[in-house]
Known about the structure:
Layout (H helix, E strand, L loop, with lengths): L2 H7 L43 H10 L11 H15 L2 H5 L6 H9 L7 H9 L2 H11 L14 H22 L13 H20 L6 H10 L2 H17 L7 H22 L4 H6 L10 H5 L4 H17 L3 H6 L7 H12 L2
Helix pairs in contact: 2-12, 2-15, 3-11, 3-12, 5-6, 6-8, 7-8, 8-10, 9-10, 9-15, 10-15, 11-12, 15-17
Amino acid sequence: MFRKLLRALLPSFVPAEVDANYAFFDKTPENEPLPFADKAPVDDQAMPYENDLEGAYLDYLFGCDARPMQQSDSLSHFIYHQLSLLMHEPEQLLSHLPVMPASISQVLKELDNPDFDVQRLLAVVEREPAMAADLIKLANSPRYRRREQEITELKAAFMSMGANGLLEGVVQSYIKRFTPRPSIYYRQFGEKIWQHALQTADFAKLAASDSQTDPGAAYFTALLYNLGTMIIFELMIEAFNVVDPDVTPSSAAFKRLIREYSHDLTLTLANYWQLPQLIVKGLHHSRLHRIRLERSRAQLSPLAQLCEQADIASKLCCLQNQQQARQLSDHLTHPVLKQRVDTHLSGV
């Protein structure tokens, strides 16, 4: 997705006719300050990452790396630094993302409309073969399939999935395009992050049904929560391949870049796509990892508070250690989600 962009931004250290020039690192000192005043790298020990639920979740995605960031390899430092610069001026990055299909725009128009025109949405999807194929595949999944006969056309898919299922399917199909491909070093990352995204969306929809928040808006917003993480991972993997594909990337570099920039990148994407303000405000939970939770939570919209709780609940369910998950569950306060997580942990 970003190979052309990264080749323009990063030098390749793969030997060609001459040996690789690793002295290039001397031109980019590790302690060189970033050329902007509004942000600086975050000290992992200085910020309260929800009692480090974020750290535990990243360990689940990448595995534990005993080496702190400052002890990881110089190449990881270099790529981390260069991508940090890109995060602060993301215009080039945004221009390389897949174009938002017309079906997503149609879904956004219908999110708050209980009597939306299904036929109009179907007509739009029919002009997008990839989207139509994804919806038919989803209609044949255990979640929606209600008969033995295989579904092979779009209207039958709608009859099986229902109106809300159709809306959710369109959103899923588009967001899944950003799911990172399996890498040689982190083979399960893409599947893990996608399952977390789906679970967060399902939890948000569940919590919305117990409140005045629109379930469709909650599902859409929650599904976007991890988009920044997906894109940063893909950037990192492709960056290592461009610079030197034979080097094993440091998970510490991945974790730090995700912690510092994933939520801001998600918000940047939401504004770039000109999503409804309801959705954009619902994503403002991203600031929670930069400032103290107690002070910021009251400033969030009801949708943002709900989706933040869904995100926390899903991360707790991802953790393999039941005792660790219970110790990190203090910030999960939504009664329905808390009950769901308790039930999950009891069965672990």
